[in-house]
Specification:
The complex is a heterodimer of chains A (333) and B (370). Chain A has 333 residues and is α+β, with helices and mostly antiparallel strands. Chain A has helices at 14-28, 67-81, 101-118, 172-180, 198-207, 221-232, 248-257, 279-287, and strands at 48-55, 61-62, 65-66, 85-96, 121-130, 138-147, 163-166, 211-215, 236-240, 271-274, 296-303, 308-312, 318-321. Chain A has two domains: 7-147, PurM-like, N-terminal domain (60s Ribosomal Protein L30, Chain: A), CATH 3.30.1330.10; 163-321, Alpha-Beta Complex (Phosphoribosyl-aminoimidazole Synthetase, Chain A, domain 2). In chain A, 29% of the residues lie in helices and 24% in strands. Chain B has 370 residues and is of the alpha/beta class. Chain B has three domains: 19-50 and 57-71 and 180-253, HypD, alpha/beta domain 1 (Rossmann fold), CATH 3.40.50; 77-178 and 263-307, HypD, alpha/beta domain 2 (Rossmann fold, 3-Layer(aba) Sandwich), CATH 3.40.50.11740; 322-365, no CATH class. Helix content of chain B is 39%, strand content 18%. In chain B, helix 8 (152-164) links the parallel strand 5 (140-147) and strand 6 (170-176). The radius of gyration of chain B is 21 Å and the shape is globular. The two termini of chain B are 37 Å apart. Classes of the chains: A alpha+beta (333), B alpha/beta (370). At the A-B interface, helix 7 and strand 13 of A face helix 2, helix 4 and helix 16 of B.
Chain lengths: 333, 370
């Protein structure tokens, strides 16, 4: 008979113990850290970065990844775009009663694989089981700890003429998820871009002078993240519509259902703003990584005032871009 | 196909077209001492013109007036209130296009009702509503049927499908509108100066170019049927300018690849079979006789207005001027609420909500950038 998660798996008794031992520790390792109520860690340097993120994506398995891969990559990327080297993750699971053990194992295996790729250790965790119907499959929270090295961090010293780089095509994750839900009745020939970006971003931080800021444009898409940057730092950024890389399939699908790729989520992309004279170096580094081989400059910091994002259309006129208003698509991460 | 569409946003094609439009508009100004004024009838045109930057690029040269072609925006408040009130009944599933979710009713929106636990589902394709009905035989499924002739044939197909599959827990709340009566109403009122119409490609696929013959024949005003890509719209405006300069109002089909003279005979037959003309109430205008379609009597069992009674009470009065916006009297910025009390996150009127609404287009794309 197919093994399924029961409420007893979350009650702290024998079944919980077996689940932790046979599923989580088996995949994540670090049994030494799991013997205590908290993992004790030694961190290099003085300044650390901490971030947390909850993942409720539907469907749990999608083209290009799963909630497990996403839960690792998402938190790793939040640390990496802050300029911190991701080292440790803690994870919390909320599982619906009746969930297939085999699926849980797949999720955990995806987490372990992505953690290995990203070079982070999953050192603490928690599992809760809720009654059938009280959750939808599995939700995962991950908390990440990273360290700043060599005193090098994005310096936020924006100057007019700074270049805005995107590490690749936009909208892949959001549209892949929408397609995977099967609500549209169309097949979407794209995979989510879900990936850890820390190797590439750490290299950028280390080798490129005058990195101003790095952000990952997840929910709300490229436009919303750029609007946040312009408002937070009171700068004007102008991006060129014709320079923004969008896969043909994504473009066509957005056109069909009335979405704007600028507002569709990404899970493996970074926006990097660097000084004008560092563009070539930044691009040559990024282009050397699979996650950055399509990296391009999409615009510039056009003034150091006003806090707004402008889009130059192919016809040459400019328009103001705002944050995504309202929900485009729930539960995409 | 995508290659063709891409060409339509190619700056090498757009920029010379833009210059040509500006030159002709200047000529018009020299002759008439004012800017030429064209109405883009359809909300999708309003959006595409603003999004592509065309509206901004020719703002000094051509007065582009947004017309009454956004289906949500032209729906009067009482009808909106009725549709939202439907959600209050027990055992119902309301299926709707996403646009309706945030449209403010007098008391609440469908989104508010959904948050309170009412079963309201956004469908991308209306046919999904039939599937939902089949899967929920103990519930009444009501589809909110809003739209112009582009959407109405699909509503006919829904009834056909429901009948064929013997689904009897499905009905449509009809609130459809027709293009010709509203254009006649605007022209008869005569209080907006217009030199021509940019006519919507998609409605015209159904109606055919012949449907607009009354414009030049009875009102001496021309129109160009245009697609929604930047180059197509600029070409449409260019042809309108050429036409007004030689004073020969015509209907020009600039979307020939898909719009035929007689339109889509199958779709027209479907509409004829399932619907008959009805009086419809338009926002800010009132009831226009024979300006919409309702289900024929023999399909009463699919008519939500007959199956379900709602009484939403008197609509709440607001200072929203959507009614004047859709008639071209004022630009969205002429409304005191625009961008202040009324924003996409807190809309007061439907024009700020709909993906085709003029106020929404202005808010998203046309706010001053300098």
């Amino acid at each position: 008979m197919e093994q399924r998660i029961s409420l007893a798996h979350g009650d702290g008794g024998e079944l919980s113990h077996q689940l932790i031992k046979n599923v989580f520790i088996k995949a994540f390792g670090h049994r030494d850290k799991a013997m205590f109520d908290a993992a004790s860690l030694t961190l290099p340097g003085n300044e650390i970065a901490v971030t947390t993120d909850s993942f409720v994506i539907k469907p749990i398995f999608f083209p290009g990844g799963s909630i497990g891969k996403l839960a690792v990559a998402g938190t790793v990327n939040d640390l990496a775009v802050s300029g911190a080297r991701p080292l440790y993750l803690a994870c919390g699971f909320v599982i619906e009663e009746g969930y297939r053990l085999s699926d849980l194992k797949r999720i955990v295996a995806d987490m372990a694989l992505e953690a290995k790729k990203a070079g982070v250790a999953i050192v603490a965790g928690d599992t809760k089981v809720v009654e059938r119907g009280s959750a939808d499959g599995v939700y995962i929270n991950t908390t990440g700890i990273g360290v700043y090295e060599d005193e090098k961090k994005p310096n936020l010293a924006f100057k007019t003429g700074d270049a805005v780089i995107i590490s690749g095509t936009i909208g892949d994750h959001g549209m892949a998820i929408l397609g995977a839900r099967g609500e549209l009745g169309i097949t979407v020939p794209v995979e989510s871009d879900c990936a850890s970006l820390n190797s590439m971003l750490m290299k950028i931080v280390k080798d490129v002078e005058d990195v101003r800021i790095m952000r990952d444009p997840t929910r709300g898409g490229l436009a919303t993240t750029l609007v946040e940057i312009t408002e937070d730092f009171s700068i004007t950024i102008t991006i060129k519509e014709s320079s923004i890389p969008v896969r043909e399939e994504i473009d066509g699908m957005c056109e069909l259902i009335g979405f704007d790729p600028l507002y569709v989520a990404n899970e493996g992309k970074a926006i990097i703003i660097v000084a004008e004279d560092q563009v070539d170096k930044a691009l040559s580094i990024m282009n050397g990584y699979p996650e950055g081989k399509e990296a391009v400059v999409i615009g510039t910091v056009s003034s150091l005032e006003k806090g707004r994002l402008l889009l130059e259309t192919p016809i040459g006129s400019k328009r103001l871009l705002s944050r995504l208003s309202g929900s485009m698509l729930p539960r995409i991460c | 196909m995508l290659e063709v569409l891409k060409q339509s946003s190619n700056p090498d094609i757009l920029k010379p077209l833009l210059i040509a439009v500006k030159e002709l508009a200047q000529k018009f100004q020299t002759v008439y001492g004012r800017k030429p004024a064209f109405m883009e009838v359809c909300g999708s045109h309003t959006m595409s013109l603003a999004r592509s930057g065309i509206k901004q690029a020719i703002i000094e040269d051509v007065n582009l007036i947004s017309g009454p072609g956004c289906p949500v925006c032209v729906t009067d408040q009482h009808s909106i209130d009725c549709m939202i009130e439907l959600a209050e009944g027990d055992g119902r599933i309301i299926c709707t296009f996403g646009d309706m979710m945030k449209v403010p009713g007098s008391r609440q929106s469908l989104m508010d009702a959904k948050i309170r636990g009412k079963d309201i589902r956004v469908v991308y394709s209306p046919v999904d509503a039939i599937d939902i009905a089949e899967k929920n035989p103990d519930k009444d499924i009501i589809f909110l049927g809003i739209g112009f002739e582009t959407t109405i044939p699909i509503l006919a197909l829904l009834i056909k499908d429901a009948k064929a599959r013997s689904i009897d827990n499905f009905s449509i709340w009809m609130s459809t509108k027709l293009v010709e009566p509203i254009l006649r109403t605007l022209l008869n009122a005569g209080d907006v100066i217009l030199d021509g119409f940019l006519l919507p490609g998609h409605v015209s696929i159904i109606l055919g170019e012949e449907a607009y013959g009354f414009l030049p024949q009875e009102y001496k005003i021309g129109g160009v049927i245009s697609g929604f890509e930047p180059a197509e719209m600029l070409s449409g405006i260019h042809k309108l300018l050429e036409m007004v300069l030689v004073k020969q109002p015509l209907i020009v089909n600039d979307h020939r690849a898909v719009v035929k003279k007689q339109g889509n005979a199958v779709a027209k037959k479907l509409m004829e079979e399932y619907f008959s003309v009805s009086d419809e109430a338009w926002r800010g205008i009132g009831t226009i006789p024979e300006s919409g379609l309702d289900l024929r009597q023999e399909y009463n069992q699919y008519n939500a207005k007959i199956r379900h009674h709602v009484n939403p009470g008197e609509p709440k009065k607001t200072k929203c001027r959507c009614g004047e916006v859709i008639r071209g009297f004022i630009r969205p910025t002429g409304c005191a609420l625009f961008g202040k009390a009324c924003k996409p996150t807190n809309p007061i009127g439907p024009c700020m909500v709909s993906a085709e609404g003029s106020c929404s287009a202005y808010y998203q794309y046309l706010r001053e950038i300098d």
